Amino acid sequence: MKEILLLKDGEIVLKGLNRRQFEDALKRNIKHSLSDLGRFDISSAQSTIYVRPLDDGVDFDEACDRISRIFGIVSFSRAAMCPEKTMESVLETAPVYLEKTLKAAGTFKVEAKRSDKKFPLRSPEICNVAGGLLLEKFPHLTVDVHNPDVTVYVEIRDFGAYIHADPIRGAGGIPVGTGGRAAILISGGIDSPVAAYMMAKRGIKLTAIHFASPPYTSARAEEKVVKLLQKVSRYAGPMRMYTVPFTKIQEKLRDDCPEELFTIIMRRLMMQISERIAKQRDCGALITGESLGQVASQTIGALGCTDEATDMVVFRPLIGMDKQEIINISYKIDTYETSIEPYEDCCTVFTPRHPRTKPILKFVKAAQEQANFEPLIEEAMNNLKITYIE
Amino acid sequence: MHYLDNSATTVVSSAAAQKALEIMTENFGNPSSLHTLGINAEHELEAARDKVARAIGADSGEITFTSGGTEANNLALFGAAEAKRRTCKRVIISSTEHSSVLEAAKKLSDSGFEVVRISLAEDGVIRPEDVASAVTPDTSLVSVMLVNNETGAINPVAEIFEAVRLKNKSVLCHTDAVQAFGKLDIKVKKLGADLLTVSAHKVHAPKGCGALYIKKGARILPRQYGGEQEKRIRPGTEPLPAIAAFGVACSEFEIEKNLALVTDLNNYARERLSAIDGVLINSPENALPYVLNITAGRVRSETMLHFLEEREIYVSSGSACAKGKPSHVLAAMGYSRQRADSALRISFSKFSTRDDVDALAEGIALGLKILAHR
Lengths: 390, 374
What we know:
The structure holds 2 protein chains of 2 kinds.
Chain A (H helix, E strand, L loop, with lengths): L2 E7 L9 H16 L5 E6 L2 E6 L6 H8 L5 E9 L5 H11 L1 H6 L2 E8 L8 H15 L4 E2 L6 E7 L4 E4 L3 E5 L8 E5 L5 H11 L3 E8 L6 H18 L2 E7 L1 H10 L5 H19 L4 E3 L12 H8 L5 E3 L7 H10 L3 H4 L21 H11 L2 H9 L2 E5 L1
Parallel strand pairs in A: 5-6, 5-7, 10-11, 10-13, 11-12, 13-14
Antiparallel strand pairs in A: 1-3, 1-4, 2-3, 4-8, 4-9, 7-8, 12-15
Helix pairs in contact in A: 3-5, 6-7, 9-10
Chain B lengths: L1 E2 L10 H12 L10 H20 L7 E4 L2 H15 L6 E5 L4 H12 L3 E5 L9 H7 L4 E5 L13 H11 L4 E5 L11 H4 L3 E5 L10 E5 L25 H12 L3 H20 L4 E3 L9 E6 L4 H9 L3 E2 L13 H5 L4 H5 L1 E5 L6 H17 L4
Parallel strand pairs in B: 1-11, 3-4, 3-5, 5-6, 6-7
Antiparallel strand pairs in B: 2-8, 7-8, 9-10, 10-12
């Protein structure tokens, strides 16, 4: 039996004249994500995207799994293609294709969608005939039109007739790439991968920036970030990761700046370096995993001081979220287990004993300027390491 | 390369590696098979068992192969405690055991056993009288490690077990001898052990293999169920490549000669390292010389470890099984949190040289100069 995936676009349908652009991006993303599973025909019509395998023996379970993580799809159905667009063909296909599902169910109903108005039977008639047949074939079933265990959909469309059970929830959001590019500052903790995921969901194509301070941080900490980004890229698509050598800058910070301002100046420097990388990569914004009040550097005052370091827009999608809410998302995107591996990251090196929670911008700036980090920033920019995340 | 992390694992000796390869590619039968290949494999298995037994002065029938030290420790604790579950509820361990004993004991205490943890005395070892005073008529097991994996401290296990038996002669006495095996002359009868754990990869054999000595007559229950292997105490097809290599490694032991060599090296290291401003020695004076625990200034262990690693000097920041957690052993010895945070474990093998120690001392001295103090 030939199977097909019917995908429902999400918010895209609300777009006006540029709707085409969004659909094309979505189709490109689907194609890329499925490319190693075989050849697929991907086309759209009647606000549905059809994904039809061109070869036999395609791993359809894997394909469904990947589709469930592509942004821009609200829901999708795995359907059987009836060999012919006739009621007979529908009646032959439905009981065979849905046998397992219906055997596991107690109640059901049939819903028909007849967008090809030339089809001889009307929707209520299709439901009647198909429902009657299924009751006959599966005598244990009863009909429940209000709250059925399974809804059997019969879709009569322009290109054919399709049978499927309840649709599967998609990842939502809008297609990656339609929202422009932004750079995510990723440390290896719980928050930044979640922030990356959330902005990718809004259509942003990501570039990742990681700060490494060997020997204060280990090679494992960097490997951990790569692992996290691989998880995120299952949603956000392939991306580049820039590793910034940060040791000398942190050592200078320790030597030349007041201890209680370490963290705040470090974050300003991270923003400034990130801005330079972001501009090289045509990114329109920076993304961080900051959440208000979580730590000393994430108070209103500290965030204000950090923000002042860059002209770029800074997205902080987690700003109003509780830790538990963030953790819930990290479970969902499967980054939690990796995030809690116990390796030092650059944020915890030289943590001051009593960080300033209400830093005053002019003092922070003065301390930073007096130390003159520019030569070291230059040096770091010349020694960036690029890793490709697939 | 200067490999000074031999308590984490060791390089496999070429004879042992050769043996493993031979078993994998030529004599690859399943020891349980009835045909010739199986019988040949069984001969290899029994030959290895004999060599391991001989290394601890046991009968080969008293050796049960496991997947390693952790499994052997688990088998000892659960196996002994469960066997007497109905009458005996008390299990006694020391507070500085390896995590495979500590965690197993925690699980026992969760499931209704009364676990008593004996603290270190001031000299960093467990006192026999402290253990004996905790023994009651309903005690089933005492487990005290022979050599501590983080500091090299040697517990007076023979005296401890003797004192325990004076209070209650039916108690099973277990010792985790992973860090002592191949380094000290261990004889189970002299120690008075009923159960004793050893591991292959700490003695120049491959990972994935260890053994539990179970004294004839000592009754323990298995932790897993299956075929007839290892007298049903540890069923499952034996990993013969590792086991046979383990046997070979045991027959290569030269305990006295190597101990003299490493003692000399340890003295040299203590001398060189103590001369560096800021370095403190954490291992007790009379610890096993294969292990030397120090504190390097106020530089965090991990930072110094990575700094040394950049110079191809490999040490550990405590026990390799506790990645990054502060040491419970150093805390139990009464050292401050700060001192434990900057602790390094240096561990030697028969292949270590003065050159390694020189590189280490220079590396630490340089690190203390360059790296940030907290």
